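Lab notes, practical 5.
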Amino acid sequence: MDTGTLTPSHTQPGAPDHLVRRGPRAFAGVHLLIDVRNGRGFDDEARVRQAIVDCVSACGATLLHLHTHRFSPHGITGVAVLAESHIAAHTWPEHGYAAFDIFMCGSGRPEEAIAVLARAFETEDIGVREVLRGEVTV
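Output from the prediction step:
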């Protein structure tokens, strides 16, 4: 497995790079893996859809497309395609669990989604893992 740093193949002087910076390091994006447990409304497609829209807004992102699907007998999946990357949602209401992936580049603020999800699903039982994706040389 390659864990090296990416080097630019081309750059345009003056063009924004849309990278995420953490101190002296730069990354292609921040990926939050959010586990939402013991909440309400995991089987409500409208609620899941609104939670995604609210996350987009809170994170300062640009929504390009949103699609959700309700499974039978239960469960919702959804994906929001963003100018900054994506938000994906998958629920298992029978287990009181929902998984959200929030991946953003540039000035997006994916951490703002945590409080949105807590409010949307009426729970404080949330776990978050952060993955810094694609370290690059600038």
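Observations recorded by the TA: The CA atoms of residues 63 and 82 lie 5 Å apart. The helical segments are 45-58, 113-120.
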